[in-house]
């Protein structure tokens, strides 16, 4: 989800959902790192508790790290049951898209939604260390050291956007690196599929941001290694 539970930072200029997921290495809701040290018993207590509310008869494919998921979920404070987030009231009520296991949501949700199948519903309890920790998240009305409860309904499990297939789709000349021209052409194709009207400057903004965030060695190309944030062996 670009745009899942409340973000830590305000969003930038509007970018197509699929483009954002495909090419921008976002870390929108990474929870604060857990303090080092502590006893093994304390660590054991800091686990995500999962209650399956509904499991469909057909359970395939099961979600795994790097998959692109589509889901609705509500977030509550365990302390008093108050709701701090509802995906159905955001983005005209559309379910949220996000990549699982890569820090686009808080760590507790990345854990809670592993091995989940389309149509499944879960209620999960996430300790502070796997959510917003000692700092909390004032903008999202989440106090420090808050245990969170999410009710999740998963709609779709798709192959992740940083797959080998996606890389090869953009790499028209098969030279194992993505040029500005190749990505520019891909953006135009995605805009055409999306069908939304955008100011011409949006294309240039997205293209510049992609290279800023992915071209780590500054050579004007995005290599397979730079593109492949999930470290697939195939690349």
UniProtKB/TrEMBL annotation:
GO MF term list: calcium ion binding; peptidyl-prolyl cis-trans isomerase activity
EC number: 5.2.1.8
GO cellular component: endoplasmic reticulum
UniProt xrefs under InterPro entries: EF-hand-dom_pair (IPR011992), EF_Hand_1_Ca_BS (IPR018247), EF_hand_dom (IPR002048), PPIase_dom_sf (IPR046357), PPIase_FKBP (IPR052273), PPIase_FKBP_dom (IPR001179)
Keywords linked to the UniProt accession: Calcium, Endoplasmic reticulum, Glycoprotein, Isomerase, Metal-binding, Repeat, Rotamase, Signal
Chain's gene name: Fkbp7
EF-hand domain residues: 158-193, 202-235
Catalytic reaction annotation: [protein]-peptidylproline (omega=180) = [protein]-peptidylproline (omega=0)
Residue ranges of domain PPIase FKBP-type in the record: 66-158
Range of residues in the leader sequence: 1-35
PROSITE patterns documented for this protein: EF_HAND_1, EF_HAND_2, FKBP_PPIASE
PANTHER family, A to Z: PEPTIDYL-PROLYL CIS-TRANS ISOMERASE FKBP7 (PTHR46222:SF2), PEPTIDYL-PROLYL CIS-TRANS ISOMERASE FKBP7/14 (PTHR46222)
Organism: Ardeotis kori
Superkingdom of origin organism: Eukaryota
Protein name, entry field: peptidylprolyl isomerase
